[in-house]
Design brief:
By secondary structure, the protein is mainly α.
């Protein structure tokens, strides 16, 4: 989990640094491209974390079941 937090922090710092850099130089295409890359890396990081969690703990399960309203009475 610490590794994930360090990677997420590094991506956030790089993202904000890049965001400020592109804003300062007024490059709109680079600015928007950077948002796409940053969002894509966040998605990939989340998917990797989810895969790791599923491999470690198994598929998610609910501990409760839905029932008809007649059964609840």
């Amino acid at each position: 989990m610490r590794r994930f937090l360090w990677i997420a922090l590094a991506i956030a710092v790089a993202g904000e640094g890049g965001h400020q850099l592109f804003d300062r130089y007024g490059t709109a295409i680079g600015h928007h491209f950077f948002h796409i890359v940053l969002g894509g890396s966040a998605i990939l990081l989340f998917v990797a974390l989810a895969i790791h969690d599923i491999r470690r703990h198994g598929k998610p399960r609910f501990s409760w079941r839905l029932s008809d309203s007649a059964d609840a009475r």
